[in-house]
Amino acid sequence: MIRTIIIDDELHAREELEYLISETHKFEIVDRCENGIEALKSIHKHRPDIIFLDIQMPVISGIELVGMIDDDCTPRVVFVTAYDDYALKAIEENAFDYLLKPVDKKRLEKCVARLEKDLSQKQLPAYHIPKINRIPCHCGRRIKLIDPKEIEYAFTDVAGVHIVTREKELFTGVTLKTIEQKTDLFRCHKQYLINLMQIDEIILLENGAAEVISKSDKRIPISRRYLKPLKEKLLL
Amino acid sequence: MNLILILLQQMSVFLVIAYVFSKSPAFYALAGRKQQFQHKIIVYVTFTTFSILGTYFGLPIKDAIANTRAIGAVLGGIFGGPWLGLAIGFTSGLHRYTLGGFTDLACGVSTTVDGLIGGVVHLYILRNGGRDQLFNPLAAFVAALSTEVIQMILILTIAKPFHEALELVKVIAAPMILANAAGSALFMSILRDKKNMVDRFQAIFSGQALKLVEKITGPLVNGFNQETAKEISTIIQEETGVGAVAITDHNTILAFVGMGNDHHVPGGVIESELTKQAINENRVIYADGIDVPYSCGVSRTCPLGSVLVIPLRAGKEVIGTIKLYEPKKKLFLTLNKTLGEGIANLLSNQLLLIRFEEQKNLLTRSELQLIHAQINPHFLFNALNTIIATTRKNNTLARDLLLNLSNFFRKNLKRSQEFSTIAEEMDHVKSYLEIEKARFAERLIVEEHVDPNCLSFKIPSFTLQPIIENAIKHGTSNILEPGVIKLTIQQTDNRIVIEVEDNAGAYQFNGKETGLGMNIVDKRIKNKFGESFGIKIQCEPDLFTKVMITFPLEGQLNQEW
Question: Do residue A116 and residue A146 come from a single domain?
Fold first, then answer.
């Protein structure tokens, strides 16, 4: 069974697609999500083979979402959309396929056939997605989109991935690895990424490691392993 | 032989007077097309004077006077018609009679007949050639010739004793016939030349005005803004040669061309009280710098000394002014004043036409946009998708939604009317909202507060739905929590106020998200009702966006539209 997640902000659209997909008897629907934030978490958690993704969604569009998925678990993406215009763009972005709403059964069947063939080749899809412009973060019940430029540093721990700006600290579903790949933040520690523009001072420590003091006086560790690359990057 | 020379000499003086007359305003009474009563008086007085002068410039011979009196009478008759000719001839003839001499009666009668003959010629010419031919020197020659011949005959028949009359006639006949005929012809020729000059002048003036007008309407096609105003001002200034030309709209100077353009700058706010007055009172204001003072409000060294401010209208509303300036010590030509007013009128017509076209286009664009919005695949296909899903679970709901969809399309394709009642607009919006509510389920909440008294009021068609659609598109579907849209329609002091508020606060005035639709609706309202109505938008980011549309209440009750 092909493991899949359905992502669409409209209840009826989700139900309709679920119905059609169930009829093919080829899929296991592991989750249903109604926005990009939920979807990101869910994809990282369930690692589906394929996602059916609506493009027009609130706050984070389907296309943006694809760029935020950790490339460890990139699923195949089938865009589902009411309007043609976006479909073309989607294909350019290397989506696996696209479906137009209302979804035609035969069209879906064709898509499934291709999918089965592709999965049998056991290759992970590789999408070329450019840098992320905004990182969706949550703080309590509110969702904020943070511009990477405003991030002082990011780190990961048991609780998840933390984003620290001048004023606040928030959580995000985007993995540290993805942030490292898709933004200008620099890896300075196994668990830390740092924004080079926000460095105020670097203090060298005795054990060969170092510490960064950010412009807002926060302290960020630099491990031995990453000190040299950091220095090189800063042309020291 | 001598006599002819002397008569010709007298006649030369006469002709000089004719020349001077042709330059006087009294001449326009002849040259003009209108023949009102006052013109008739002028003709009477003028030609009677000429005729009497002819007597005084005469040469006494054998107790008679050889003279050029006939010229005045005949020409007076030619210009004025039989009655005037008769009056002129009679007056002058009477005067001659009072001077005495044995030909007094003969001459008196003869002059009267002269006038009459001139009048007959007048009628003949009008019937066969038209007004212009009145100035034909040949007609004058022939008329004068015949009158002199008749005069000689009259002298022979009336003056006593006969042999003395015969003697007289032998001497004066030839000279007088020739002198009067030639004199009339020459007189007429002078007048004709002057008339041709006037005609040509008028033709040139009209030609110039038409040319000017043609040149101006070109730029206007591109609208009424700083650029086109500059083009128009330049054209006017070049063609008329006035010192400077300016065009303003309601509160700023759109263009300024000519002297003083260093400190009268386009884009600047209107400083001049005269201009503001012209706009407010909707009348032409002329400050000649002498009786009505004018001084530049901006610079002390401004060379301009007088100004003509002409309001520009689009229909009834004053939308700006055209100003013509002359430098100090130069007089405003009446020509340019008239031209200026004519141009303003023409531009006003053009602007009205442009507004009309714009309005038509806006309406078309608005309709097209709306149709696109429906056939807007997003709306349509999402709606169909929702309905398809619903058929599986809830047939009744699916049916209702399809009916709503059909109602929505039906209303939309009915594009014939410019105005709809609020009730009709609400019906339209309802069909739309039923579908969107089904689509978004609990994520969309709509609150309506509509004053039922407002339902019959008329507003431009397709005003409401685009705004609601915007609220949903840019507002509600951009947030994760449920979207709340509040629609309020009510009347408050002389206005109808429609408010659409969403709880997303995502509306960006500057971005591309501004929504062409909103702008179009706003423009349509302002075009129709004026600048103080239309669309206003308030936005508190992340909190709310409120769109407010206002219409005037007046005119609703008598259903002006």
Answer: no
A186 and A226 housed in the same domain? yes
pLDDT digits 0-9 by tens, B251-299: 888 899 998 888 888 888 887 888 888 888 888 888 877 677 777 777 7
Is the pLDDT score of B511 beyond 50? Answer: no
- Contact check, Cβ <8 Å, A58/B480: yes
CATH superfamily for domain B375-552: Histidine kinase-like ATPase, C-terminal domain (3.30.565.10)
The strand pairing partners of B536, in sequence order, are: B548
pLDDT class of B180 with cuts at 50, 70, 90: confident
Q: Contact at 8 Å (CB) between B27 and B46? A: no
Q: Which residues of B touch A10 (CB under 8 A)?
A: 382, 385-386, 439-441
ipTM associated with this complex: 0.78
Torsional sign, CA A111, A117, A119, A125: negative
Q: What is the pLDDT of residue B507?
A: 58
* Sign (positive or negative) of CA dihedral B435, B437, B443, B445: positive
pLDDT band at B512 (very low <50, low <70, confident <90, very high): very low
What would the two tokens of residue A127 be? Answer: 């999408």
Does residue A129 fall inside a structural domain? no
CA distances from B490 to B255, B448, B463, B466, B501 (A): 42, 11, 16, 19, 14
Written as one string, the DSSP assignment of B367-435 is HHHHHHHHS-HHHHHHHHHHHHHHHHH-HHHHHHHHHHHHHHHHHHH----SEEEHHHHHHHHHHHHHH
* Residue B400 CA to its chain's centroid (Å): 58
Q: Which residues of A touch B386 (CB under 8 A)?
A: 10, 12-13
B437/A contact by beta carbon, under 8 A: no
CA distance, residue A146 to nearest chain B CA (Å): 15
> How far apart (Å, rounded) are the C-alpha atoms in residues B500 and A49?
44
CB contact under 8 A, B385 and A9: no
Range of the domain at A191: 138-234
Q: Do B462 and A41 form a contact (C-beta atoms < 8 A)?
A: no
Instruction: Decide yes or no: CATH 2.60.40.1180 for domain B225-349.
Output: no
User: Per CATH, is B2-203 categorized as 1.10.260.40?
Assistant: no
Which of A13, A37, A83 is opposite residue B378, by nearest beta carbon?
A83
Exposed e or buried b per residue across B512-533, where buried means at least 16 C-beta atoms within 10 angstroms of its C-beta? eeebebbebbbbbbebbbeeeb
Of B389, B440, B478, the CB nearest to A16: B389
CA-based torsion, A53, A54, A56, A60: positive or negative: negative
Contact A101 B480 (CB under 8 A): no
Q: Tell me the two tokens of residue B30.
A: 């002849």
Instruction: Judge if A63 and A99 occupy the same domain.
Output: yes
Structure tokens at B345: 């009128």
pLDDT tens per residue, range A55-73 = 888 888 888 888 888 888 8
The H-or-E segment that residue A233 falls in is helix A224-234
Confirm whether A75 is domain-assigned. yes
Residue A95 DSSP class: -
d(CA A133, CA A161): 18
Domains in chain B: boundaries: 2-203, 225-349, 375-552
Whether pLDDT at B510 is above 60: no
Contact B225, B253 (CB under 8 A): no
Contact B305, B326 (CB under 8 A): yes
Question: Residue A10's closest CA among A74, A82, A115?
Answer: A82
